[in-house]
Amino acid sequence: GVAAALGALRNSRTGLVGSLGALALGFALWFSWSHWVDLSHHWTQRDLFWRYYDRRAPGEPIVAYMMDWKGETFYSKNTVKQIKDSPARMAAFANLPGRKWALVEHPRLGLLRQAIGPDHRIEQVDRDLNVKFVLVTID
């Protein structure tokens, strides 16, 4: 910023453009390697799958309900069951014995509750971990 001001005061186009370019490059490097990395925990599914792998018991399945983001397939190593638009299929999944896990977008959590019905209990796991997705258990 100081170099840009000096370039402007001295009427030096090269100094002004060079210093603004260096400032833009510095900002881009900080934005790419620091800021986006800090934000990634709030909008990627990686941390949610880490919670799932840490807290699940052997044989507990996970479903991605009404999602097609491809992150759920990547982070689950292609083991997630996709139920994209069928409440009946989600209800059948919820009726399987034992605890189940589901990954859904925050605005669609109500649709998940409607699909599985009142006979099952949903518990959110680390509700504020992610601003886009939520991990829940279904009992």
The secondary-structure class comes to alpha/beta
Q: First CA to last CA: what distance?
A: 58 Å
Whole-number mean pLDDT: 88
Report the C-alpha radius of gyration, rounded: 23 Å
Count of strand segments: 5
Q: Helical element count?
A: 6
Global morphology: rod-shaped
SSE order? HHHEHEHEHEE
Report low-confidence residues grouped into runs of 5 or more.
none
Main β-sheet description:
5 strands, mixed
Strand content: 15-25%
Kindly report the spatial arrangement of strands forming the biggest sheet. Answer: 2-1-3-5-4
Q: What is the percent of helical residues?
A: 40-55%
What this model shows, in words?
By secondary structure, the chain is α/β, with parallel strands linked by helices. 50% of the residues lie in helices and 17% in strands. The protein contains six helices and five strands. The chain has helices spanning 2-9, 13-43, 46-55, 71-75, 87-94, 109-116; strands at 62-65, 81-83, 100-105, 122-125, 133-138. Strands 2-1-3-5-4 form a five-stranded mixed beta sheet, with helices on both faces. The termini are far apart.
Summed up, what is this model?
This protein is α/β, with parallel strands linked by helices and 139 residues long. The chain has helices at 2-9, 13-43, 46-55, 71-75, 87-94, 109-116; strands spanning 62-65, 81-83, 100-105, 122-125, 133-138. α1 (2-9) runs antiparallel to α2.
